[in-house]
Amino acid sequence: MMYCCLxxxxxxxxxxxxxxxxxxxxxxxxxxxxxxSYYFNQPQKxxxxxxxxxxxxxxxxxxxxxxxxxxxxxxxKHKKIPxxxxxxxxxxxxxxxxxxxxxxxxxxxxxxxxIDVACLFSFYQDSKLLNEHRDLILPLFEIRDDLRVxxxxxxxxxxxxxxxxxxxxxxxxxxYVNNKHAAKFHGTLSMDYYISAMEYIESECGxxxxxxxxxxxxxxxxxxSKYSNCLVADADENKFSVIDMYLMSLCNNNIIANxxxxxxxxxxxxxxxxxxxxxxQWYISGNECSLKNENWIAM
Length: 299
Fold this sequence. Notes:
Helix content is 35%, strand content 15%. It is an alpha/beta fold. The termini are far apart.
């Protein structure tokens, strides 16, 4: 039995699920259980989140039961995993016993083959791991058919698919501004970053239409209004996080924020000719980020 213990927003849920699904390939008979207990008992310091992973065509066996949620939530509290941890962590439980395995255990399935019940807690933000299993993961993150229909009815969808010169820009503010814990850890990107990224894209790909996806439309319209080739997507047009991510993945190029949400938007972009601009500094601390991709341009 393998429990994928979800937490955080959509981007982090995707990392967690992908890691669990990759590990399951070594144990095909293992039951994959999605645990959403975190969303019923979130720490006060965390940004309020909801389960959103089911907006994709993911494959799993079942959700955790009420009794399982109680036990896993108790284990999570005892584990005391930091909110954001770029290193792989793997914890296993068997009945009332807890097994704590080092990071290397995730990459060495043979070392855990005799454990009957396993819980994966961390975010598993590892671009190398995902790139190695890209063909396995991509089909799992196709949006549900009903949401695809909603998306195709949006005016912005036609704009993106009818052009070969569209670059997405993601501006993440929200909790990076309003939540002191997130703000202290991440911080927001400057306009200098976005302007430099826009200039680089146009120097390499020619004139572009830039579509800004953001959780702060008012701020984005104020800052980008001077650029005639910039369009701010209307956040009120959809209520599903996956739709903006899907739209970003359809653009020719991507300028991402220090956010796993737009990271996935760029990673899911199937174009072989895409240019992706990513921030060189992901965290305020300047700590190394395991989300770097060799083919992406860091600024």
